Amino acid sequence: MPAENQAAKNAFLRNDDVACFDGPPRELVGYGEHPPMVRWEGEAKVAVNIVVNEEEGSEKTYAMGDGVNDGMYELPFEQDLTRDLAKESMYEYGSRAGIWRLFRVFDQAGINATIFGAAVAIERNPEVGRKIAARGDDIVGHGYRWSNHFEMTREEEKMAIEAAVASIKRTVGERPLGWYCREMSTNTRSLLVEEGGFLYDSDNYSDDLPYWTTVDAKAHLVVPYTLVTNDCRYIMGTGFGSPDDFFAYGKAAIDRLLNDGDDCGRMMTIGVHPRISGHPARSDGLARLIDYAQNLDDVVIMRRLDIANKFIEQVPAPQGEGHE
Questions:
Q1: The overall pTM is greater than 0.90
Q2: How far apart are CA 153 and CA 133, in angstroms?
Q3: From 324's CA, which of 59, 81, 179, 228 has a CA 20 to 30 Å away?
Q4: Domain-embedded: residue 20
Q5: Axis crossing angle, helix 280-294 with helix 99-109, rounded to the nearest 10
């Protein structure tokens, strides 16, 4: 058999991804039939975490010298080789109006949210940083800018993480203990562990519970995020046509987690964006979903940091080979 054909056959038969590519191994085997029997605040079975992706003003634009205008626009239009003022103004809506409407929704419900904050977005609207601190919402690093980390070299990514931590500490008053960037690289998790100040990361969509993994021989906590109960589906792909769709989808998720065929507790994330759910009708769908969750006995709305700490209390980091 010619050498090139044998190589192709070996690649087809190989089941070890790491033999082919750099980066961490796939983690396809999770808790299986026996997830940990966690409970949340007030012994609730389901913990709901509401995440606000604060990105506006940090996205790629010609105005900021990126040579491209970012996506996630309300209409499928692209304007190349020049600034797209319409798209810029959509993002500005989130910063000018949307984020404040979301804060009012949370204030009326008496709850805290988690802010996935792109550092530059808060730098450019420092009143948002002060509001996050005053409300007691927890802050998760969402990159220095809202840009893809897989496009960076390892050194560039390290500098971006360090810059984000320093910036958020200035604008919000405390450093982020969690991390979720835009499209992580194969270096991201290792760099977070190397930085040393992160309790967990959320660059993951693979479970309904936090879990421990191993990074550079150290135990590292992952608190998964979601793109399913997420308002990006209003404007991307097959998703929500109305606030009723958003509410129904979230309600169905909560109902199933409460009656999931076992007695295990789980978590649920609701991801929103000021430029999307900050609009009146969409924020109403979010408010109705929050109200529904608050009126269920076995559901609690928690900050992401509190979910991480509550999980660690009940499922401490593993000890032994491969962990410190």
A1: yes
A2: 33
A3: 179
A4: no
A5: 20
CB 52 within 8 A of CB 101: no
Q: Looking at the predicted structure, is the pLDDT value of residue 324 above 80? A: no
Rounded distance between C-alpha atoms, residue 76 and residue 36, angstroms: 44
Within-domain flag for 115: yes
Contact between 274 and 52 (Cβ < 8 Å): yes
> How far, in Å, CA of 68 to CA of 62, rounded?
6
The distance in angstroms from the start CA to the end CA of the chain is 47
Rounded to 5 degrees, what are φ and ψ at 214?
-115, 125
213, β-bridge pairs: 220
Whether 219 is covered by a domain: the verdict is: yes
Q: What is the structure's pLDDT at 77?
A: 84
Number of domains in the chain: 1
Q: What radius of gyration do the chain's Cα atoms show? A: 21
Q: What is the pLDDT of residue 323?
A: 47
Q: How many residues does the chain have?
A: 324
Domain CATH code at residue 151: 3.20.20.370
* Both structure tokens of 117: 């904050």
pLDDT tens digits, residue range 244-292? 999 999 999 999 999 999 999 999 999 999 999 999 999 999 999 999 9
For 221-289, the DSSP string reads EE----SSSBGGGGTSSS--SSHHHHHHHHHHHHHHHHTSSSS--EEEEEEE-HHHHTSHHHHHHHHHH
Instruction: Give the max Cα distance, the chain.
Output: 71
Q: Which residue has the higher pLDDT, 237 or 19?
A: 237
Place of tokens 């220095």: 144
Tokens describing residue 234: 């209003």
> Mean of the pLDDT values across residues 190-203?
98
Enclosing domain of residue 205: 41-314
Q: Count each helix (H run) and each strand (E run) in the chain, helices first.
A: 11, 9
Determine, yes or no, domain membership for 281: yes
Burial classification of residue 37, based on how many CB atoms lie within 10 Å of its CB (0-12 exposed, 13-18 middle, 19 or more buried): exposed
